[in-house]
Design brief:
2 copies of one chain form a homodimer. With 606 residues, the first copy, chain A, is an alpha+beta fold. Helix content of chain A is 25%, strand content 29%. In chain A, strands 4, 8, 9, 10, 11, 12, 13, 24 and 27 form a 9-stranded mixed beta sheet that branches. In chain A, strands 14, 15, 16, 17, 20, 21, 22 and 23 form an 8-stranded mixed beta sheet that branches. In chain A, strands 1-31-30-32-33-34 form a 6-stranded mixed beta sheet, with helices on both faces.
Chain lengths: 606, 606
């Protein structure tokens, strides 16, 4: 059956609400953002908040339709929640606080607290609790395509990280773990079909460190240099978001023969490079030269909890690696981290900038006693997993211009724990033994996640099982960024001249350009445009009477409709030109144009 | 061409996310609200905020599709604005303040002010200003179907007055008044088609008093006893929202022979009835008996401006009429009014409750001088238009137990102006001379409004005209309450057993019920359901195995799908039963069922 509708839309450029811009907007950095603005698909209304013009809305509707079809195909049922929600359910799960400043909060005229929902786990859980009570009602999958809100600190890249955006979110409900696994797999398969139909290249990466146990979580990334997510993969099949990469932990090292730690003067060695050079000059190692990997760098962060409390955290990493702030934040979530500032240092004179060492940190440092009598480190200290017992380090002596050598982990110092916060580098070994990783960047398009029983427990969603016993339901949460997918499509399908949409999501299938001044040109072009529409083809028809061919072609390339039909000079010879947005032009007899172009469109949509 | 799709949806009740309720929800007062909840179409999430379950969402989508088609048919182009908007444009037009507590306001993490938009006049105006600059670009009509917010003081009747709701709003842009008239008429015609296709009875009423001049404004009301709007109409064709009714002003009366005003003791005459009785007893009128219409009742209100300032207003009306608070508020908008309270009276000892008269009010009362030297009445006094010069009144003497008689308007007292605030009654004469009015109630479904140049002026939307001169654009604003239309449809199409949707908006066309225990019943029912779906019919199939026929029929009537097909006992005789939701049952041979029911559905949709 034809993928075409009974009748296509005809968009005449003489009246279509669109104006193209020749210049890039000042605030746009990435190609999709620049081109979607320039081609008149969207307009910025406020930071991270956009208005959809007719062409953009058409593309958005097509993406939504594909997502909806594939969700329905796995039996998911569509519902629709409000965006404006009362505080209470989010309070019950702790997310009212955990979301911190990322949540838009407001009060109504009666001073009741509301939020603009960033996701709807709580509401879906409560709705199922309201309607269902038996294991016989399950499995159940619900979804919505809905406008969501997130008060991003740094909205960027147009639609890629916005504050008001459209998401498809779905939730599965099962009373057994096996049921959840099956629901998860159905979503995974559906997502593969969705991104394939959208014409989007994608990579499925693990989104959660194995350290967190059985729950599965994967992301669908569209590989792109402008993506915000970094992921790793190996030839052996490992793929993970860099935030989820687990460092293979080396074996502990025997340290019986290690020399005692000794403090040495290291003037002007406030950087790792200077320190290594000085160590090799003044304290040469017999077996090989010192390298940055022999130093232990202690980096001070201020960590803010969702409730606003702020404390210091020192992360110790081998000196040849930086701390990756995104990995750090992923490890600390929902807390947020930033490099410690002068005010933070001022409160802790034991931290000597450039010479910070373990002996004032964590268990070695000052301790504080809580009201309940438990003690904890005054300065929390977490180590990279590579700092295993027995490893020997050159590190700060907590005195200006001095470092300590041969400080042995497990002998001379300990920490409050380990943390996955060091940068991941190309060539690092994957935790599954599949070899060295390579790094790439991607745009997160989708996320599938085995929530388990967290929300059901917090909100009391239970069903009676086969034995009449109340059991807590296990849930999955599955998202697709619909507006973000549109931006990713633009990012993946453009050239220097404009957008180049896949036919499945293009605002129209064919762009008919009338070039010339004679009425016969416009009559022939209109006739072809209308003929195509009668066959179900969606047509942009550039019927503007006093616009030059050059401007018309430039606009056509900017708009990015897949097939261009030029009605102009060739008309005298009874031909029109057909030119794919990316491809070679050819001529067709006028009389065949409608049938031949319709067939091409059907081919593109097949 | 068939109105059916290529393939219909099949909704199996064994898995459909719906639970019907036998009891009315405690907080529901009107039938549509009760039934939409009981039939599992919507669920309440917060006051005036609802979640859409699958059946409700299907109806909503059908209404939206009809609205969209008819808007596109008049050349309106679809766009989509954010709901979360910055304060500035609404500040520029004054609406940030004017909306008062009806606006949901919030701040983002940078303390910038935002609102959840109740309507988008400002944004459309600015968008057109952004893209267009010439009269050649006009006329233009844009629309969106979008979620809107209004912090109603009294959300009520379910979807009829909600705080988050879906509206179609459209805006026309023209550079001439004739253009605006044409755009207005196109919308008026489109609205007639929309409400006709929805199967909704409607009345078009004037929504603005002629006193406001040339701008036209009309409302589309669905007549309903639970409607919030009262409207009047005459056999002669006059129809107006009661708030827009203009009182025909009587001619002035000569008062040369009127006696001088005289104060009389009127003990215990604090009510109009008591006063009239006492006047007839103690001060009989020679020509006829005094009636309540001879008394002038002065009612004290506290009026709160959008900026929060509060002042007193006294409205003088003939004693046989009440002040209609909705008419009063319409006349005072955007200010809000409420009966004055004890605290208000305490500040004005000159107001003697039950005996308030003109001589301490308005121009006769105390005056206040503003900073700019202008003076105004300390207690603003506005009169019903019937109180024309020369009319003689019995009214309060501003002394307890005393009234003044023969107080003549224009001779003994004046006012600060007139106001349309007295109740309108059946039998009142229409202002256009078309005779006495009757009153009815309706639900406001749509509103069309010639905005004129107000927003374009405030926001600087001009285009160059034929002579290269910048002219301010004139606009129209046109709304349809989409979620409210759904409620109105439910209100207009139900009986005591449940909903009864018109086929065009029903969640499905046919409800197939399998009654009985044999597998052959379920096989035959499934075969018919699937046969219908293959013909494009949308089917709810009650395939629940262990549910009694009584429950199944009750659910079918509650859900309100137009055609019921019963597969059960008759199967032994080779027949099934077809029963319209409202109509007589008949039997059909099983073999003909699919074709015959499909034909019926096509008939219903034609």
């Amino acid at each position: 059956m034809s993928a075409l509708a009974r009748r296509g839309d005809l968009l005449r450029l003489s009246t279509l609400f669109v104006r193209t811009l020749r210049e890039d907007p000042a605030d746009a950095e990435v190609a999709s953002h620049k081109l979607l603005i320039r081609a008149g698909y969207i307009r910025r209304t406020a930071p991270g908040i956009y208005t959809w013009l007719p062409l953009g809305l058409r593309v958005l509707a097509k993406i939504e339709a594909i997502v909806r079809e594939e969700m329905q195909a796995i039996g998911a049922q569509e519902v629709h929640f409000p965006a404006l929600l009362p505080r209470e359910p989010y309070e019950a799960t702790g997310r009212w606080t955990e979301y911190g400043p990322n949540l838009f909060r407001l009060q109504d005229r009666k001073r009741a607290d509301y939020l603009l929902a960033p996701t709807h786990e709580e509401m879906f859980t409560l709705l199922v609790k309201d309607l269902y009570s038996s294991y016989k009602d399950l499995p159940l999958t619900l979804f919505q395509i809905q406008t969501k809100y997130r008060d991003e600190a740094r909205p960027r890249a147009g639609l890629i990280r916005g504050r008001e955006f459209v998401m498809k979110d779905s939730y599965s409900f099962d009373h057994t773990d096996a049921g959840l696994d099956a629901a998860y797999q159905r979503h995974r398969d559906a997502y593969e079909r969705i991104f394939t139909r959208l014409g989007l290249e994608y990579v499925i990466v693990s989104a959660m460190s194995g350290a967190m146990g059985g729950s599965r979580s994967e992301e669908f990334l569209s590989p792109s240099p402008i993506g915000e997510d970094t992921f790793v993969r190996t030839a052996g099949g490992y793929a993970a978001n860099v935030e989820a990469v687990v460092t293979p932990v080396p074996d502990a090292v025997a340290y019986d023969d290690a020399p005692a730690a000794h403090v040495e003067p290291t003037p002007d060695a406030g950087t790792i490079d200077a320190l290594v050079a000085l160590a090799n000059a003044n304290h040469p190692r017999p077996d090989r030269a010192w390298t940055a990997a022999d130093t232990l760098k202690n980096v001070v962060f201020a960590v803010t909890q969702p409730d606003g409390t702020r404390g210091l955290l020192v992360v110790g990493v081998p000196g040849d690696r930086e701390v990756d702030l995104k990995r750090l934040e992923a490890a600390l979530a929902p807390a947020e981290a930033e490099p410690a500032g002068d005010a933070d240092f001022a409160k802790h004179p034991e931290l000597v900038k450039g010479y910070i060492g373990p002996l004032v940190l964590g268990p070695q440092g000052a301790q504080v006693t809580a009201e309940d009598g438990t003690t904890s480190s005054a300065i929390r200290y977490l180590l990279d997993p590579r700092v295993v017992p027995g490893t020997r380090w050159i590190t700060g002596a907590n005195v200006a211009d001095h470092h300590v050598f041969d400080l042995v982990a497990g002998r001379d110092f300990a920490a409050d724990g380990t943390i996955e916060a060091a940068e991941v580098r190309a060539g690092d070994l994957a935790p599954d033994g599949s070899g060295p990783v390579e790094l790439a960047r991607g745009i997160e398009m989708g996320h599938i996640f085995q929530l388990g029983r967290k929300y059901a427990e917090a909100l009391g969603l239970k069903v009676l099982d086969e034995n009449g016993k109340a059991v807590t339901v296990t849930m999955g949460s599955y998202g697709i960024g619909v507006t973000r997918a549109l931006a990713a499509l633009a990012e993946a399908n453009h050239d220097e001249r404009g957008l180049a949409w896949p036919a499945q999501v293009a605002p129209a299938h064919v762009h008919v350009v009338a070039t010339g001044k004679g009425t016969e040109v416009f009559e022939a072009a209109a006739s072809i445009a209308e003929g195509l529409v009668a066959h179900g083809v969606e047509v942009v028809y550039d019927d503007r009477p006093k616009v030059s061919p050059g401007v018309k072609f430039a606009d056509a390339e900017l708009l990015g409709v897949p097939l261009l039909v030029v009605v102009g000079r060739g008309l005298a010879d009874g031909v029109v030109e057909v030119r794919p947005r990316a491809g070679e032009a050819e001529t067709l007899p006028v009389a065949d144009a409608v049938a031949a172009v319709t067939a091409r469109v059907e081919g593109l949509l097949a």
